[in-house]
Design a protein that fits this description.
Strand order of the largest sheet: 7-8-9
Shape: elongated
Structural class: alpha+beta
Number of strands: 13
């Protein structure tokens, strides 16, 4: 009996320890659908894998609205001012490390603006994968590792993108963490593994730890799909309206089941002629002149039937509706305000603000990857302690309604809430792009 009581007490004492150990163990999974290193998360098969990347590329390259707002995003982000803030603004060594990182960003073989532009390919594709290439800063050299510094420290040589279409497989550990990616070079066919410790992964979202993120064009796919087909039908309809509907009359024996090989060949050739009739600079047709011996009517004839006039549907309105839905999916429908001749100035400012907020979030994602991975790795290679790691920051794009701001400041000044000499001048000139006043010489 005593032994049983002692065993029960021992088991009771061990339970908290077992619970504590269990809390450090990962039991569940993110739910990401992965098979053989391939992601199968999207329920549309045409948007999975390399096929999906090809669709998104077609959308960007061929659609004017999509290409327009992608270009607008890139141009806005290119104009953003980036800074590196020291961990302690009062520590000279911390300030020096911030200057070192800022110098490293601008000492790569590709400019910082071009590097950020390549990172932005995560928007249409969902992710952007970049390999980290270091160099020893030893001044001008001819081996591709030239540097504007001669301090001997390790800097970034470049952060080249690894094209999304070349990432053929992802590698995960047992807990679902990303270990790296396999890349296949389309030119040589060479397959290499790039570990995640030697790369930077930029994603539009980290949902379910999906390394491929989610394209910002995903919600635009359905309207793009239907609009493309409507445009194809419209183009064919316009061509048929202008050229007419071709109709060929042939002898009945050519349509008979007992037609000879020569008659079948003649019928197929006439079908090709009907299908390929186009109104262009090479238009013309050679057709046999033969008469039926009994009816004395032409045995062969070709006519173009005219159309019945306007169609029931206004394709302009349908195409415009899909344009609006595509732009709305990324909060960029303000680019259609002038084309539609609707909307107010206040509405456009409000829409642009939402668009800028989205850009701010994407910029924050880029900065987070650098502050979490790129900068700590670089400074650890240079033996810098963690408490002196600086942070990459940026000035988000702003869209200021100058008329509204001027009215607001005027009312505050009239009410006595602010005074004209409160130092507002430089701020107001700054948001309007007006140079600051030069200080008078004493």
């Amino acid at each position: 009996m005593v032994d049983q009581v002692g065993e029960a007490l021992a088991n009771q004492r061990s339970q908290p320890v077992q619970k504590q150990r269990a809390s450090f163990t990962e039991v569940g999974a993110t739910g990401l659908a992965v098979s053989g290193g391939q992601i199968h998360q999207d329920f549309l098969r045409q948007l999975q894998g390399l096929q999906g990347l090809a669709r998104y590329r077609e959308m960007v390259d061929n659609h004017p609205v999509i290409g327009g707002f992608i270009h607008a995003i890139e141009m806005l982000i290119r104009s953003v001012e980036w800074t590196v803030e020291p961990s302690d603004p009062n520590d000279e060594q911390a300030i020096g490390e911030a200057e070192f990182v800022m110098g490293a960003l601008n000492d790569m073989s590709h400019s910082w603006a071009d590097t950020v532009a390549s990172m932005l390919t995560m928007l249409p594709y969902g992710f952007s994968f970049h390999e980290i290439v270091y160099k020893r800063r030893q001044g001008p050299k001819k081996d591709g590792q030239s540097s504007g510094f001669v301090d001997g420290r390790i800097g970034w040589r470049k952060l080249p993108i690894r094209a999304q279409e070349t990432i053929t497989e992802w590698k995960f550990d047992d807990a679902g963490g990303l270990e790296g990616a396999w890349q296949t070079d389309p030119s040589s066919g060479r397959r290499v593994f790039i570990p995640i410790d030697k790369a930077l992964l930029f994603r539009t979202t980290t949902k379910m730890n999906n390394p491929q993120g989610r394209s910002i064009l995903r919600n635009a796919y359905v309207p793009w799909y239907y609009q493309r087909r409507i445009l194809e039908i419209e183009a064919i309809g316009i061509e048929r309206d202008l050229a007419g509907l071709p109709v060929a009359y042939v002898p009945p024996e050519l349509l008979s089941d007992n037609a000879t090989t020569q008659q079948q060949a003649a019928l197929n050739e006439i079908k090709n002629i009907v299908r390929n009739i186009r109104r262009d600079e090479q238009e013309g047709l050679v057709f046999p002149l033969a008469y039926d011996p009994d009816t004395k009517q032409p045995a062969y004839d070709l006519k173009l039937l005219s159309t019945g006039g306007r169609r029931q549907f206004d394709t302009n309105a349908i195409v415009a509706r899909y344009d609006a839905r595509i732009a709305m999916s990324v909060l960029a429908d303000f680019i259609l305000l002038g084309h539609e001749r609707v909307g107010t100035q206040a509405l456009s400012v409000s829409k642009i603000k939402l668009f800028n907020d989205s850009i701010d979030a994407w910029l924050g994602g880029i900065a987070d990857v650098f502050n979490t991975h790129a900068i700590p790795r670089l400074l650890r290679l240079n033996g810098v302690p963690k408490d002196r790691f600086p942070r990459l920051n940026y000035e988000p794009p702003r869209n200021v309604d100058l008329a509204e701001t001027a009215d607001y400041v005027s009312k505050l000044t009239a009410a006595g809430a602010i005074l004209p000499d409160d130092g507002m001048g430089d701020y107001l000139r700054g948001i309007a792009g007006i140079p600051a006043e030069e200080a008078e010489a004493v």
